[in-house]
Amino acid sequence: MANNEYPHKKRITVYLAGDSTVSEYSSSYAPRAGWGQFIQRYFDDTIVVKNAAIPGRSSKSFIAERRLVSILKQIKKGDYLFIQFGHNDEKINDPSRYTEPYSTYKSYLKQFIDGARAKQAIPVLVTPVERRSFTKEGSARNSHGEYPTAMKELGLEEHVPVIDLTANSKELFQELGPDRTKDVFLWLKPGENKNYPNGVQDNTHFKETGAQKIASLVLEGIKETKLVPLQNHIIK
Hints:
This protein is α/β, with parallel strands linked by helices. It has helices at residues 2-5, 59-64, 67-74, 101-118, 147-158, 165-180, 208-224, and strands at residues 12-18, 32-33, 47-51, 80-84, 122-126, 162-163, 185-188, 200-207.
């Protein structure tokens, strides 16, 4: 009886902090989607996903806009905070967003970690998902420079689990190759979709099918890093 009366007692909330590759989109942007849109479907009903990711944000600008403060007001003991930044931290010509991999990037990420831990929540670092970038020979390229390495270094220093989505997504894109990755990313021919009448060739953002593939890589990462109790709630 007690469980039915207080179902929220058992609930674990997974907060997502990130950029456009994680965030949710309205139907006017379809089929553009972030992986955070699809992760809920992989969990049983004791897990609630709150996607706070916003397009265009870096670790620095997300904090400056008090978006982390907003998450920390709600997050509670036993919840998770997944943190994926990098795409916009790389924008060296934009001082409001740019961070340097081994100094400011790490120090802003540490604010997410410290904030979650102060509320007895569990921080999880997620290295930035790769862009669609290939050599002439068809080899998938690294598109994030030192940022993934810096994040993994911080994970070791702070004893925070790291899901290496950079490596896992690169492996997937290598497997698919230059042509088939167009089905993952937001590539559309003119007239193919009413939201993109002139077509689009976007090597950063995903179609819904691609975002689902990336979400499943995040799930694999949860299992690889043995995030308990979260992994126990993945629907088999």
